[in-house]
Amino acid sequence: MKKILVVDDQYGIRVLLCEILQKDGYKMFDAANGVQALKIVEQDTPDLVLLDMKIPGMDGLEILKRIKEDHPHVDVIMMTAYGELNLINEAMSLGAITHFAKPFDIDDIREVIKNSLAVT
What we know:
Keywords: DNA-binding, Phosphoprotein, Transcription, Transcription regulation, Transferase, Two-component regulatory system. GO terms for molecular function: DNA binding; transferase activity. InterPro entries: Bact_response_regulator, CheY-like_superfamily, Sig_transdc_resp-reg_receiver. One of its GO terms (biological process) is phosphorelay signal transduction system. It is a single chain. This protein has 5 helices and 5 strands. With 120 residues, the chain is α/β, with parallel strands linked by helices. Strands 2-1-3-4-5 form a 5-stranded parallel beta sheet, with helices on both faces. β1 (3-7), α1 (11-23) and β2 (27-31) form a beta-alpha-beta unit. α2 (34-44) runs parallel beside α3 (60-70).
């Protein structure tokens, strides 16, 4: 069973994504901040991380860097509510496989997740 970690400071988004993706047959983890996220990555090594760009404290790029340093095989998809192209480009150069703008279409996300996990 593939494992997915949702990292977002917005509780509603974590719950929504976890509920929907759990129904798709994934084992779900969620974290509200970078410290929690890195702990889960260390303990449970998810196959995929859905990572919000804007998180108080350690931001998405910093979390992405740290995940990729220790677990380069973990796929990361960035989520952002901001059309900040430079951040998205930086995230991609750091190893994110793609990104979504919020509000997102849940079916698009499910499709990309299915495709990216099928490859691994």
